[in-house]
Every structure is written in C-alpha cells, then in structure tokens.
Amino acid sequence: MVEPLKFxxxxxGNELLIGKILNTNAHWLAKRITSLGGKVTRILVVxxxxxxxxxxxxxxLERHPDFVLTVGGLGPTFDDKTLExxxxxxxxxxxxxxxxxxxxxxKYEALSRLRGRKLELTPxxxxxATLPEGAKPIRNPVGTAPGVLIExxxxxxISLPGVPNEMKxxxxxxxxxxxxKRSRLVFCEKSLRVDGIYESELAPIIExxxxxxxxxxxxxxxxxxxxxxxxxxxxxxxxxxxxxxMKLIELTVSELKRHVTERGGRISEIAEEG
Amino acid sequence: MVEPLKFxxxxxGNELLIGKILNTNAHWLAKRITSLGGKVTRILVVxxxxxxxxxxxxxxLERHPDFVLTVGGLGPTFDDKTLExxxxxxxxxxxxxxxxxxxxxxKYEALSRLRGRKLELTPxxxxxATLPEGAKPIRNPVGTAPGVLIExxxxxxISLPGVPNEMKxxxxxxxxxxxxKRSRLVFCEKSLRVDGIYESELAPIIExxxxxxxxxxxxxxxxxxxxxxxxxxxxxxxxxxxxxxMKLIELTVSELKRHVTERGGRISEIAEEG
Lengths: 274, 274
Fold this sequence. Notes:
- The structure is a homodimer.
- With about 270 residues, chain A is α/β, with parallel strands linked by helices.
- The first copy, chain A, folds into 2 domains: about 5-180, Molybdenum Cofactor Biosythetic Enzyme, Chain A, CATH 3.40.980; about 185-270, CATH 3.30.70.600.
- Chain A has 9 helices and 12 strands.
- In chain A, the strands form 3 sheets. In chain A, strands 2-1-3-8-7-6 form a 6-stranded mixed sheet, with helices on both faces. In chain A, strands 10-11-9-12 form a 4-stranded antiparallel sheet, with helices on one face. Chain A has a two-stranded antiparallel ribbon with strand order 4-5.
- In chain A, helix 3 (about 50-60) crosses helix 4 and helix 8 crosses helix 9.
C-alpha cells in the first residue's frame, strides 16, 4: 500500500498563544493537505522567540516527516523571527539571498510607482530577503515577504507568511503542484448521523466493524441539537483512486448500518459542508 | 518581578489534524489563561494515538511548565486514548479509580432514571474511570467523563474532555480557583490602529519604544479594509495590579503616538472585542 506524505505544521506567533486569534492557518492547511491525500501528523504553536522556534523545528525534524511547514514570522518587523530560528535549528548562517532580494526590490519598486514616492530598501526590508544558507525563495504572488524552501536530510521545510491570503497563494501556486507530484493518494470521507443509541453503546460496534476494515478511520462526535442528543460519525480513508476509496467507505457504512439498526438505532448521511 | 505561571496545551484528536474542526478549545483556553495572568508557552496537536500522545506529553514535561493541560480523548470510545498515553509517558499503570467510578456510576444512574431503563456499567463506561495510578478525578459538572489531575515532578497535568462545554465547565469550576491561588499577576492589553505609515516603517519605531519599555509586548498586524491598508498594534503586559499594568501600557502608547505622528502617521484606539 502507498504511504501518504507526512506533514508537520509549525505555526509561529504570540497572538496564537494569548488567544487573540484562532489558528485558522493551521486549520486551512490541515484540511487542504488532507484533501490532497497527505497526512498531517502534528501541529505545533510557539511564540515569536528564536530559541522556541529552533527547538520546535528540531523536534519536528527528528520525526522525519516529508514536509515541515512553518507559518508566520517572515515579515519586516523585529518580532518576525522565523528564519533566524530555522537557521539556528539547522546550524546555518543567515545571508542576503540575491534571488529573494530581487523579489523584494521588485515589490517596493511597484509600491513606489503606486505611491508616487521612492520607497528605499531599508534594513528591515532587506531582512525579508535574508535567508538561511542554501535556502530557495518562493515567489509571493500577493505580498512582499517571499516564502522559503530548504531541503535537509530528506525533509522539505517550507516557510510561509502568516497573512492568510499570502499563505494560501503560495500554497496553491507552489506547494500544490509539488505535493501532487510526490503523492499518489486521494482522500475520501463521509459523515453519518446516528440517532437512538448512546455513544458508549456505539463504541464496541465501531471497534468491531473497523477490525474488518482497517484502512477506514471512524471518529465519533457526541452532538446535541435542540435538546436531542445524537452522534456524528466521520469516516475517512486514503486510496490510490477516489473509486477505490469510496468503495472502502461504502462497505464500512453498510456494516455500521446493519449493526446500528439491529440495536434499534438509525443512521442517516450528512451532506459535507465542503 | 513576579513570574507568570507557565502552561502548555496538548490537544488530542485526529479531527484537528485532518482540518475537520478548528482548534477552538486551545484558543479558548489560551485566551482564558492569559486573562488570568498566566502564560501559554506552547500548543501542540497530536492524533488519537498512544505513542504520539505519550511522546508529546514527555516533551512538554521536559520543558517544566507549571501546568500541562491535555484536551480531548477522555470519552468511552476506542479512540479515546489520552489516559493510556499519559500513563505510558509517566511509566504508571492504569487502574480503576474508585472515586472516578463513583462519579461515572452516579451519572449513569441519573441517566437510567431519566430514560426509564437501567444503563449498565459496561466495560467502555468503566474505561472512563480507569486512570493512571496516583491520579485524582475531577468532577465533570455537565458530562460523564471526569477530568483528571496528576502531579509529577513539579508539573500539574490536567486532562480535560474535548467537548467544549464540559472542558469549559471543569476549567471554570476547578482550574480557575487553582490558578488564581497560585498566580499573582493580572493581564492587561490595548489595541491601536495606525494609518498613514507602512509596517516596515513602523518596525524600527516599535523596536526603539520597546527598548525603553521591556515589560510591554507589542505585536503588529498588517490589515486591509475596503482597499485601505493600515496596521493594527496589540499591546500586552502582565503586572501585579491592573493599575500598574495599564500605566505601563499607557506610557508605551504615548511614546508610540509621538513617534508615529512625527512621521506623518495617525494612531487611534480600538475597542476590544471582549
């Protein structure tokens, strides 16, 4: 069986640790990677601190995923410390990358024309082109700070900006083709609603059905709606084709239906929210 | 200066890694802990896997925070593996905890009365009362699975259920008094909107102002609203009294205002969203 590509997501930013913002970036990436047949094995959040970023990245690399995606901390401000942390984790120096500098320069030239006054390449702007040795900049189609690619010991590290539309644009333009090229799996899912049976009564049924269908994953979520309790089941699998994946899911659904009906419960399908 | 209590949050659930749900639990906890004067130093997300939970918890313990909060995976189903992971990380055995069993029993007796039929203490229900040796159960005021408290080498591990209203109820009932007793800091914050100046021009100003106000933290966020770009600044600090904290913040605000105005920019205050 084909193994999925493994990803770890390292999101960086004090605003996440103080609960100022929700980690919608990690959520979007996890969903998108899963839909491409990849597997996110861990998500980490650390603050804007070089030591913390370096130690977290090192722990990611020790687990040897195919990709580590860092998110945030690539901008011009003093607390954008991601590349310093990456450089420290890898024992590489930071240096002005000529290709990245051209990208940043072009952005400020365009902004200068737009504003009608010259925006100089100040030190904080050059900072966005200062990358760990051996890194490759990735064009940012909607913002100023380039993304950054580094290959190290079989792991591809991609640093993405934290501004959501910039992160998404680089992911779609650059990462999606890369993932599709390297992965040979597609992701399939289905949601079910189970009424008339407790989650704790459902648990041994699911366990039994999954013993016969080890490639399908079933997660149960107790829910409440207008006072009525029910259980939502979310079935997922990865397969080499959508057809093969949906067959695995449908087989599991029919077995679950049989057992639940025998116990006096009801199963219905839930349309995916997309 | 009084040090804040340090927290790490370990959220557990495949549904987070496939991007099915947003990590609103970690967000809520981070915000609530910060408002109590605590400091969240790291957030981790792992799947429903004993080895992953154990290895992540071990890495949290190595950093010696005051608290590690695990969230999720306490329920009756086969994929609720948190306590197994905790036991493995600590090298402790799992055993039926009499106090926890009484709590679970009482819940099912109440449910039996409500339903008019006897709900037995099946193995999957007893599982919710099967805790690592030396653990103390925490009463769950709104659900079935108790929370779990373990003290180990100066770190307090608290395991909370993943159902949001259960997690919040246990946090408010049990953890808030515990944190207030152990912490002597309050958290203060203010948001500013800066117009008419680029983030990259603002960066050196912030850096200069913070050198003179090291206890205040300022984070800048580039924003866009109806086509107009501006920068949001979020100032935070912890202090022994609200008064002392707000004085530190106001001093920083007035220095920022002076520098920004000199450069032709404008600063206004933003009401907190609460």
